[in-house]
Specification:
13 helices, alpha/beta, nine-stranded mixed beta sheet, 20 strands, eight-stranded parallel beta barrel
């Protein structure tokens, strides 16, 4: 569900007209709904709380990579949400909006020594270790930090989880499938068991659990359930070997309805399945939703530049938004519903929806049936709140899209569009030129 609806013939974000946002912030602009973010978090929180017996006091850690805007993160932080991070920068963003270290998970296949040290110093909840080489480096970093720790600057032993690759890949596209045998993430079950035992023998790390994330935009619970059952079996085997396992990080990946259909499966069904699999295991679960909470909380507002009608019959709707603003269609052939801000009368006709970037890949849709739009009309790409602004660039020296947060009748620009002077000021010319 989201809060982007027609009111008085104009599409609104909650209580604010998108025409107003376009007038004040220009286009292209991302607009986010705080009410949608709160609703999605609330539904997941309610589902987790209903299954405390099986999931413990489950942590919901928003995947910062989905939308890292500080105001979006602050909205979730006020609800008690944690953060799933994959870089020092994302950890810093979470800390900056008040998410404490004990609610921050640090994941990622290529953490540097400096990032590991920073995570340890900030006392993050856990570091998800993804390889034997990383465990070796983490032990070394932790040991070196302890040598310089003082009473006034204590440094604790980091909690870790071993990320398992269960050879169960799932997701809406090959590029967002992360649990298959050939994917770069995590380690196979047998190796994970050995790493857990090795970590248990080290005084410089404290293994607390296992982690798993098999992909994104998953719309079938079967592969998720299979992966969770792998974690359960591993937990039982590790405990039989005398190891303590108190947490299971279940990752994220539940899909969202990009095509406007009802969400299937629902967050409640997803959490209930996890609870059923983990029942009686006495562990504390963690969920890492990103797309699930942010996708339908945001839209990309754009304006029609012109409509190119060729003699061969093709019709191109040229927008001022481009692939540098919304990369998902170019990267994943992703679908985003496109709506006019003011409904347009007339029979729908097939259009290729494109942007101004000098790439054939700058194509949002082919043969999309749309009403007869014209130059100057405002349109929105729906479900653009996740992996939209965060993946954008200044390709073709195009300024980044602005970002706006709406909360009821209030709105604020939360990332201004840079001026050309500001863009150029970041690039000092070599002093000999």
């Amino acid at each position: 569900m989201h809060y982007f609806d027609l009111k008085d013939g104009v599409l609104h974000a909650e209580g604010v007209s998108l025409e107003t946002l376009a007038q004040e912030a220009g286009t292209p602009t991302y607009a986010y709904s705080a009410a949608t973010l709160r609703r999605h978090y609330g539904l997941l929180r309610e589902a987790c709380d209903a299954h405390k017996g099986a999931l413990g006091d489950a942590l919901i850690a928003f995947a910062v990579k989905a939308n890292s805007n500080l105001s979006v993160l602050a909205t979730l932080a006020k609800l008690g949400c944690g953060a799933d991070t994959v870089s020092e920068g994302e950890i810093r963003r979470a800390l900056a909006v008040g998410i404490p270290g004990e609610r921050i998970i640090f994941s990622g296949v290529g953490k540097t020594d400096a990032e590991l040290a920073f995570a340890i110093e900030q006392g993050v909840r856990q570091i998800n270790v993804e390889s034997s080489a990383e465990l070796d480096r983490l032990i070394a970093v932790s040991s070196s930090l302890k040598q310089v720790a003082t009473a006034s600057r204590p440094i604790g032993t980091p909690n870790i989880a071993i990320r398992v690759n269960p050879k169960i890949g799932a997701g809406g596209h090959a590029k967002i499938t992360t649990g298959g045998a050939g994917d770069k993430f995590g380690v196979p079950v047998e190796e994970a068991m050995a790493l857990y035992a090795r970590a248990s023998a080290s005084p410089h790390v404290t293994p607390v659990g296992l982690a798993c994330h098999i992909g994104s935009q998953i719309t079938d619970l079967s592969p998720l359930e299979a992966a969770f059952r792998v974690l359960r079996q591993m937990t039982e085997e590790l405990r039989a070997q005398g190891h303590s396992v108190t947490r299971l990080d279940l990752g994220g990946g539940l899909g969202v309805p990009y095509y406007g259909e009802a969400a299937t499966p629902s967050p409640a069904e997803y959490v209930a399945m996890a609870a059923r699999v983990l029942d009686g295991l006495n562990v504390e679960a963690a969920f890492e939703p990103g797309r699930l909470m942010a996708a339908n909380a945001g839209v990309l507002l754009s304006r029609v530049i012109q409509v190119n009608e060729r003699t061969d019959g093709r019709r191109f709707l040229v927008l001022d938004a481009a692939m540098n603003d919304l990369m998902r269609p170019a990267l994943y052939d992703a679908f985003h519903d496109l709506k006019p801000v003011r409904p347009v009368a007339g029979a729908a006709l097939p259009h290729d929806v494109v942007g101004p970037v000098c790439e054939t890949g700058d194509t949002f849709a082919r043969d999309r049936d749309l009403p007869p739009l014209k130059a100057g009309d405002l349109v929105v790409f729906m479900s653009a709140g996740a992996y939209g602004a965060v993946m954008s660039s200044e390709y073709n020296t195009r300024p980044l899209a602005a970002e706006v947060l709406v909360d009821g009748d209030r709105h604020a620009v939360i990332r201004p569009r840079p001026t050309y002077d500001e863009m150029f000021a970041r690039e000092p010319v070599a002093d000999w030129l």
